[in-house]
Amino acid sequence: DDWKPDSGKDESMEFRLNVCQRVQLKELDIKNPEGVASWGKKNKGTSLGTLSKTPKFRGDTLLLEYDDGDDCPNASNYKKSTMIQFICDTTVSGQGNPFLISHSNDCTYWFVWRTPAACPVDRPSGGGGGGVFGTIIGVVVAVYFLGGIAYNRIVHHARGLKQIPNYQIWVEGFDFIKDMAIILFAKCYRPKRSQSSYHNLPVDSEINTLIDDDYEDDEV
Fold first, then answer.
1. What would the pLDDT profile of 127-161 be if each residue is shown by its tens digit?
2. Could you give the CA distance from residue 32 to residue 46 in angstroms, rounded to a whole number?
3. What is the average per-residue pLDDT within 189-204?
4. What's the pLDDT score for residue 65?
5. Which residues lie across from 14 on neighbouring strands?
6. Is residue 135 within 8 Å of residue 103, measured between CB atoms?
7. How many CB atoms lie within 10 A of CB 2?
8. What does the alpha-carbon distance between residue 22 and residue 126 come to, in Å, rounded to a whole number?
9. Could you give the CA distance from residue 80 to residue 72 in angstroms, rounded to a whole number?
10. pTM score
11. Which residues form the MRH domain (predicted)?
12. Cα–Cα distance, 137 to 146 (Å, whole number)
């Protein structure tokens, strides 16, 4: 649908705007109504700008400009144009409504539109800083390894794995981790002793009897 901007106290001018499509009003008494997205009428209808579907940011301000309208009355080398400034506002009802801020020499028109449609829909997830930090760490690690390899190769004439910077420390660290893993694995997965091997052992009374018998044999 078309939007009817509020022109304030000046009721002599009627406006129609549309966003992302041309003005739907059928009674557009202008030469080429097909692409008109901003229209105004005082005594006679006029094109205030043709359709554009590419809003642009200027700083933090979202703007949509319709240019190449009808000729300006006092400057035939210029065409009428419309600038719509969208402002995020969640307090207005519905999608809000544009209102006329100013116009210059019946040639350029500036509308402000406070609407929740101009508010951001995606909030930062907080992962941007982490991504930058991760990138920095990656660059530092890459410089450390590549620079160390180049240094060991050129200065110490190292070859093979010994080109890696602080190679001995890495080897000792790997061995330490391997030993700790073996120890932990052995503690966690130590097989349980079978209880069945103790079933045939004599009880205390039987042991005492055997000891007494041996003692008597020794006396004889």
1. 555 667 788 888 888 877 788 788 777 877 777 77
2. 10
3. 56
4. 94
5. 41
6. no
7. 15
8. 40
9. 6
10. 0.54
11. 1-121
12. 14
Nearest-angstrom CA–CA distance, 54 and 37: 13
Q: Letter for the amino acid at 210?
A: L
Q: Write out the DSSP string of 15-55.
A: EEE-SSS----S---SS--TTEEEEEESSSEEEEEE-----
- Side-chain-facing half-sphere of 84: CA atoms under 13 Å: 31
Q: Residue 25 corresponds to which tokens in the numbers above? A: 């009003």
pLDDT in tens, 38-67: 888 887 888 899 999 999 988 878 999 999
Q: Range with the lowest mean pLDDT among 16-20, 30-34, 39-43, 102-106?
A: 30-34
- Residue 205: CB atoms within 10 A of its CB come to 8
Per the CB < 8 A criterion, the answer to whether 151 and 166 are in contact is no
The Cα 203–Cα 162 span in angstroms is 64
Decide the pairing of beta strands 81-88 and 108-115: parallel
Radius of gyration of the chain (CA): 44
Query: How would you class 216 by CB atoms within 10 Å of its CB: exposed for 0-12, middle for 13-18, buried for 19 or more?
Result: exposed
Q: How far, in Å, CA of 7 to CA of 102, rounded?
A: 9
Please enumerate in sequence order all residues whose Cβ is within 8 A of that of 38, keeping only pairs 6 or more positions apart, or say none: 15, 16, 17, 18, 23, 47, 48, 49, 66, 69, 82, 109
Number of H helices, E strands in the chain: 3, 10
The number of residues making up the chain comes to 220
Sequence-separated contacts (24+) of 200-208 with Cβ below 8 Å: none
Distance CA(220)–CA(56), nearest Å, equals 118
From the number of C-beta atoms within 10 Å of its C-beta (0-12, 13-18, 19+), residue 98 rates as buried
Closest CA to 151 of 166, 169, 163, 161: 163
